[in-house]
Design brief:
Blueprint (H helix, E strand, L loop, with lengths): L1 E5 L2 E4 L4 E8 L8 E6 L6 E6 L7 E2 L7 E6 L4 E6 L8 E7 L19 E6 L1
Parallel strand pairs: 2-10
Antiparallel strand pairs: 1-3, 3-8, 4-5, 4-9, 5-6, 7-8, 9-10
Length: 123
């Protein structure tokens, strides 16, 4: 399985951006899909999760109400719509499938990270 996140860029505060996660080599088994991010010097943190079964998405407190995660299973793509960007959203953003029975909101429960895509927000 390989996940590639793309769509990042240099944005001004208040702007919007959509990230895309393209999945390849997937066997068809169901998986929860997560977006995480990592700023310089900080631990990787949850952004949003789209459960496979159609349960409600999970968002971090810092992005709830501004970001929306969505998924098109037929094309195996996961999207992150980012509205009203803030300087503190600056980070490398990654997508990954949940691959173990750990906590759904912790990055250690996910694998196959890929290189991520950098989002930089200026004031």
């Amino acid at each position: 399985v390989q996940l590639q996140a793309f769509g990042g860029g240099l944005m001004q505060a208040g702007a919007f951006l959509r990230l895309t996660c393209a999945v390849s080599g997937h066997s068809g088994s169901p998986y929860d899909a997560g977006w995480f991010r990592q700023a310089p010097g900080k631990e990787r943190e949850l952004v949003a999760i789209m459960p496979w079964r159609g349960d409600r998405p999970v968002y971090s407190n810092s992005v709830r109400g501004r970001f929306t995660i969505s998924r098109i299973q037929a094309t195996d793509r996961v999207y992150l719509q980012m509205n009203n960007l803030k300087v503190e959203d600056t980070a490398v953003h990654y997508c990954a499938p949940k691959t173990n029975a750990g906590a759904i909101d912790h990055w250690t429960s996910y694998s196959y990270w890929g290189q991520g895509t950098l989002v930089t927000v200026s004031s």
